[in-house]
Amino acid sequence: MKTINLMATRHSAFYSPFIACIAGGFLEKEGLQGTYQVVPAGTSTAAEIASGRMDVGQSAVSQAFGPLEKGEKPPVAHFAQINRYDGFIIAARESDPSFSWSKLKSKNFLHVHGGQPEAMLRYALYKEGVDLDELDRIESKGGEQMMQQWLDGEGDYFHEQGAYPQQLEHIGKGHIVAAVGPSIGPVAFSSLVCRWDWIDSDDAKKFANAYRAARHWVNTADPMEVAKAEASFFPDMAVEATAAAVAFYQKLDNWGGDIAIDPQHYERTLDVFSHSKRISKRHDYDAMIISPPQTD
């Protein structure tokens, strides 16, 4: 059985369609088996894909802006959408049914700094009438580091992907009060990447078939069923928290629609990065994005 090597840039339940290719057995149905790993320090998902060490990676179209800003061709092609909303969630130390974004102005905000997470957060706050630079911000790389910072008492508000906020609720250490995605709307948030020539291979077609099925499944199946299937990928996360995150993203319709990257969603990504002055011009869709293989 042919092996497809998968690499994640960030590891969370937000990327369940990618993880479910293996966890849900969808690769096996196409006669493939898969390996999965998170990118190690000192390299990047794009570099590992371009080198041939990995076959498919979880990334974001914004990854291509760096090379394009230098007039260079991106090292990998973006061929499918994972998430069509920003999946970061805001949690607070106390329940707050009347939360408004302006409340961030008077508190310490523990949020993921740098890259796309910060660019999207900045744009969402702008849409809500808040300037990120005016907030008291606590820096974090996110993930387990942010969880520990929060548990150590840092911050009044917490900004991370599911299922970290759901895990805080599960252990009684936080309350979800808002989400970034609805403030921005549909956007080309995260994507799958491959080598430019790999997309024409038989393996690519089989993978695309498996991925379509996996994405539809995580968007429509019982959230607990998905969480149990993925439990081995999240050994430190309560299965109830993962299920709650899956349910949250299903309600958001985060995994709905076709797997092709929507040009209109891409245009909103350009809006986001233009607002943060992270790009000098609106780069062409075709400079980085290709169509996924189609089913017969």
What would you say this structure looks like, in words?
Helices cover 37% and strands 19% of the residues. The strands form 2 sheets. Strands 2-1-3-10-4 form a 5-stranded mixed sheet, with helices on both faces. With 296 residues, it is of the alpha/beta class. The mean pLDDT is 96. α1 crosses α9, α7 crosses α11 and α10 crosses α11. It is globular and about 55 Å long. The longest helix is centred in the C-terminal third of the chain and has 19 residues. It has 2 domains: 184 residues, D-Maltodextrin-Binding Protein, domain 2; 97 residues, Periplasmic binding protein-like II (D-Maltodextrin-Binding Protein, domain 2, 3-Layer(aba) Sandwich), CATH 3.40.190.
CATH hierarchy, class of the largest domain? Alpha Beta
CATH-level-2 architecture of the largest domain? 3-Layer(aba) Sandwich
The CATH topology of the largest domain comes to D-Maltodextrin-Binding Protein, domain 2
Strand content: 15-25%
Low-confidence stretches: none
* CATH H level, superfamily name of the largest domain: Periplasmic binding protein-like II
Beta strand count: 10
User: How would you sum up the major sheet?
Assistant: 5 strands, mixed
Shape: globular
| Average pLDDT | 96
Overall helicity: 25-40%
Cα-to-Cα separation, first versus last residue: 22 Å
How many structurally independent domains? 2
Rg, alpha carbons: 19 Å
Number of discrete helical segments: 12
Strand order within the widest sheet? 2-1-3-10-4
